[in-house]
Design brief:
The structure is a single chain. By secondary structure, the protein is α/β, with parallel strands linked by helices. 41% of the residues lie in helices and 13% in strands. It is built from 11 helices and 8 strands. Strands 1-2-3-4-5-6-7-8 form an 8-stranded parallel beta barrel, surrounded by 7 helices. Helix 6 links the parallel strand 4 and strand 5. The chain starts with 8 loop residues before the first helix and ends in a 20-residue tail after the last helix.
């Protein structure tokens, strides 16, 4: 398989068949998207998590379609190999299939997304099918659904009992039959997520769902240690960039206050006088 070729729906299916793990990370801006692209990330998710990470909101619910289009268009400029997937924000697809088609179409046409992601199971299967029918790839999302967090309360982890596991299986079957090309499994017990992955014909991407999924996704700011408001149990921090940045910024403030910056090395010299050619 050509590792430099663009990631497509067909390629993701082949990766599942071969047992090759899929990597997905969130991106909201050009600079970070370029870094993720160069690192070899397969899928760039323009997540509605930008509401919390980028905007400072308490949840993802206030994020608008216009905001998602704006951030998706920026991330798409950086993508060469990685597939760009845009979250469909709250109330951009739940009201009707027709509204979902319009919203997904704008994310693809104006935002340059290559696919969209919808949260939900059986209740959105008809909507998923309609969007897929017009040629827009849809990624599913079951388990804990952040856009429905008020419904869940503190019961975030899904599939803890037989009833919960059976409901997840029904959700997976419904949206897979509707035509999703991949499914995010969020906050699901590891054994249940592994069984769902075994049952699924399409690739599964886990977040807080154990190692048995076909791929993994994290919020990039979490793994880099940039977002420090809280740290979910399933997050592994590969850096502590918030501390590094704070230290650097404090040093800059100190240098400016003390007059050490800018020094001669970081200043332009006086322009040399022009020679008299007479």
């Amino acid at each position: 398989m050509n590792q430099s070729a663009p990631v497509t729906v067909t390629r993701l299916q082949e990766m599942k068949r071969r047992g090759e793990k899929i990597v997905m990370l969130t991106a909201y801006d050009y600079l970070l998207a370029r870094l993720l692209e160069e690192a070899g990330v397969d899928l760039l998710l323009v997540g509605d998590s930008l509401g919390m990470v980028f905007q400072g909101q308490e949840t993802t619910i206030p994020v608008t379609l216009e905001q998602m289009i704006y951030h998706t268009r920026i991330v798409a400029r950086a993508a060469r190999r990685a597939m760009v997937i845009a979250d469909m924000p709250f109330l951009s697809y739940q009201t009707s299939p027709e509204e979902a088609i319009r919203s997904a179409g704008r994310l693809v046409k104006e935002g340059r997304a290559q696919a969209v992601k919808m949260e939900g199971g059986r209740e959105i299967a008809t909507t998923v099918a309609r969007v897929v029918e017009i040629g827009i790839p849809v990624m599913g999302h079951i388990g804990f659904k952040p856009q429905s967090r008020y419904q869940y309360g503190n019961h975030i982890v899904q599939g803890r009992d037989e009833t919960g596991a059976a409901e997840l299986q029904d959700d997976l079957k419904a949206i897979e039959q509707a035509g999703v090309f991949s499914i995010v499994l969020e906050a699901i017990t590891s054994p249940v997520a592994e069984e769902l992955t075994r049952q699924a014909q399409c690739p599964t991407i886990g977040i807080g769902a154990g190692p048995g999924c076909d791929g993994q996704v994290l919020v990039t700011a979490d793994l880099l240690g940039m977002f420090t408001e809280f740290k979910p149990r399933f997050v592994k921090r590969y850096a502590e960039l918030a501390r590094t940045a704070a230290s650097a910024l404090e040093a800059f403030v100190g240098d400016v206050k003390s007059g050490q910056f800018p020094d001669l090395e970081h200043s332009y010299p006086a322009k040399p006088p022009s020679k008299d050619k007479r």
